Amino acid sequence: MKTPKILIGEGNKVLRAKSEKAGIKKAKEILVEMRRVLKKQEALGLAAPQIGENYRVVMCSIDGRFTAMINPEIMSFSLDTEIKEEGCLSLPDEWGNVERAYSIELEYTNEEEERVKVYLEGWNARVVQHELDHLEGILFTDRMKKKKGILSL
Ligand SMILES: [Zn+2]
């Protein structure tokens, strides 16, 4: 089987679309493909739209281990925020500072079809927020503090 291609570019229509809820069967198929991609890439996470599937499925590195999340939902964001530099496999030449909630409460369905609730902070929370943005068609450059060209006063 071929490794799926990663979609690239701020203007890509699939990357910019809102993704729909995934049934468990479809989610599992997508996760097989996503794991294949992640074996070959250095990344902390991947969202299904990045491999051309507009479904609500992501893989996020949590404490250094990839965790599959189906139909994830952030239930609350901390008021505390943190600014850190991010990159994205779909924007290979871009890096930039993004402000995000320091911690979140998250719900998702795991591969055993259980609904799981977790509290995440720091990089774990950041990776999840970045990947869930992909499900809304949002890229990290949309949230960058200083985007090229809009700095002049
Ligand atoms: Zn990304």
Which residues sit in consecutive blocks of at least 5 with pLDDT less than 50?
A: none
Cα end-to-end separation: 52 Å
Q: How many individual β-strands?
A: 7
Largest sheet: 5 strands, antiparallel
Number of domains: 1
Give the class-level CATH name. Answer: Alpha Beta
CATH topology label:
Peptide Deformylase
* CATH architecture term: Alpha-Beta Complex
Q: What Rg, in angstroms, do the CA atoms define?
A: 15 Å
Unique ligands: zinc ion
- Helical segment tally? 3
CATH superfamily grouping: Peptide deformylase
Mean pLDDT: 94
Adjacency order of strands in the biggest sheet: 1-2-3-6-7
Q: Which band does the percent of strand residues land in?
A: 35-45%
- Judged by helices, strands and strand pairing, the structural class is alpha+beta
What best-fitting shape do the alpha-carbon axes yield? globular
> Helical residue percent?
10-25%
Order of helices and strands: HHEEEEEEEH
Task: Write up what this structure looks like.
The protein is an alpha+beta fold. The chain has a single domain, classed as Peptide Deformylase. The chain contains 3 helices and 7 strands. The strands form 2 sheets. Strands 1-2-3-6-7 form a 5-stranded antiparallel β-sheet, sandwiched between helices. It has a two-stranded antiparallel sheet with strand order 4-5. A hairpin with a 2-residue loop joins β2 (57-62) and β3. The longest helix has 17 residues, at 24-40. The protein is globular. The N and C termini lie far apart (52 Å). The site of zinc ion has 4 residues, from α3.
